[in-house]
Amino acid sequence: MGRYRGSKYKLSRREGIDLFGTGGAPLQNRVTQPPGDHGRKPQRNRPSDFAKQLREKQKAKRIYGMREKPFRRFVDMARRQPEQTGVALFKLLERRLDSVVFRGGFARSRPMARQLVNHGHVLVNGRKVDIPSFLVEPGMTISFDRVAMKMPDVEIALRAPTTLCPSWLSSDDDGIRMIDWPTREEVGFPIEDNLIVEFYSR
Questions:
Q1: Which of 38, 46, 57, 133 has the most CB atoms less than 10 A away?
Q2: Pair 124, 158 in one domain
Q3: Looking at the structure, do residues 52 and 17 belong to the same domain, yes or no?
């Protein structure tokens, strides 16, 4: 199945949060209202455990722009980590190259960061990497090619590095450096990772 190309507003309203970081004021004002002319009518019955697990899984997939098969692969990788599976999962997701570019402040959204990577504008330790799911490790540096450095978002970020970087990233006029492992506490959006783990444990 191809990548979703429909309305990002609609998906964000369905999940109740700005999934893509691109909405601005209009979306922020309506994000808690489900899709439809007047929003979804209140349900008489509480959602089942499966429905809640599915919603959290879908929310995480959409935030990170992933399809089912790659997302499940990350869940399997997390299961092999020594720590709690849900915590390990989000640490892995945050280490994705497209996520690091976004979190470092060099793209306004994860989709934009993914596009930078896909088009070959991102360098890891000086070498081009065009795989968004590439896992960045502490000590690695992320920089940009000459074309990307002329793009408004990247140019602004290079001139005035963001102060909103998570503690495990360092952003300066040379790009981004990963200085530590990601923390679950700094993911920055409400996800119940235990429900995702339960979904894949059925």
A1: 57
A2: yes
A3: yes
What is the rounded distance in angstroms from the CA atom of residue 138 to the CA atom of residue 176?
A: 11
pTM metric for this prediction = 0.80
Is residue 102's pLDDT more than 60?
yes
Domain membership of residue 115 as a residue range: 96-181
pLDDT (0 to 100) of residue 13: 60
pLDDT in tens, 122-172: 999 999 999 999 999 999 999 999 999 889 888 887 776 655 789 999 988
168 in the same domain as 157: yes
Q: Let me know whether 79 and 134 are in one domain.
A: no
State the helix-helix crossing angle for 8-15 and 49-64, rounded to 10 degrees. 140
Report d(CA 89, CA 110) in Å as an integer: 18
For the chain, the domain total comes to 2
